[in-house]
Amino acid sequence: MFGALGGNVQHVGVEPGRANALDSALLALMWGALFGTLHAIAVCQAEDIDLGELERQWAATAPVLDGLVADLIKRTNAGRFASDEETLSSISPHHSSLQHLIELMEARRIDRSVVDGYDTIFKRAIDAGRENDDFASLSQFLGKPGGK
Description:
Layout lengths: L1 H5 L11 H29 L4 H28 L12 H17 L5 H15 L21
């Protein structure tokens, strides 16, 4: 019956609240992508870049991002936070790139609320001496597992 109603129904366990928690996690991932897209649109508009060009560049970039997300989940699940031979990029260059984005957004008067939050998380990791760790190590600076 659920398959007929929803199409892609998946059993995620019997624990009360598990499906809701997983849905919330997927919403966080979705909103991150959607707000990132809104910021990309705002930057393109401020820099007079045709949104068709953004769409074409996204089509070329999406498979890379899919791989990065899969790697991030895999590394975090394995607790592999230190840089190693499979590290695609450490925290430091990501933070430098974010600073460039923040400067551009400030200059073009684009709302920085979301990216300022990213900067705060980066700074927590850097203050803890983790700037050379894999990007996955940032997961340790979002709060304690289980909210404890």
